[in-house]
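A quick aside before the break. I want you to see a complete sequence-to-structure record at least once, exactly as it would be stored in a machine-readable document. Don't worry about memorizing anything.
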Amino acid sequence: EIQIAGNIFIKLLITPLGAIVNNNVLCVHGGLSPDLPTIDQMRLIDRKQEIPHEGPMADLMWSDPENIDTWKRNARGAGWIFGHRVVDHFSMLNGVDLIVRAHQLVQ
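That is the input. The structure line, written in tokens, reads:
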């Protein structure tokens, strides 16, 4: 029983950070990272770890879009706030037409 639970836990730790749909839609949990300008760089992240409190992996989980131009630190203390120029540049550089997010923190 412990072995099965351990295997399930390990598999949960290495679930995908995102997905590409139809070669032109990027799906992520949270958002973008200033340290990951390309999808190819996202693929290089070592997913066999807990989500850190900061860094590119945390950014993909916790960053949020806002009506700004570029980047600013997220007041929540995790991830970044990113604006339309970031999305436009990322989309052009990576050939995606749409970025779909799993969540939005609203207060």
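Two observations worth writing down. The chain is about 35% helix and 20% strand. The chain has a mean pLDDT of 86. We'll return to this after the break.
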